[in-house]
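Onboarding guide, step 5: your first structure request.
Type a short instruction followed by the sequence, for example:

Predict the 3D structure of this protein.
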Amino acid sequence: MCEDEPPQEKPLCVQWCFSDVLIYEEREEEVEEAEEVDEAEIGLKSLVDKHGLNKLAETFARMTQKG
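The system replies with structure tokens like these:
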């Protein structure tokens, strides 16, 4: 009985409730959007945590020179 076809101001179950115990109230809630983290960023952070930034930078520089 609470269908919304066609769209109505209040759901039918609220309109037809004879004892007035159902209340229809709209509210808005703020939702924080989760920041998406790139998989590569997660992998790099893991490598930095495990081996250190200097070691990772040296290895990356050596790998780019080799081609």
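Each response can be followed by summary notes, for example: The mean pLDDT is 84.
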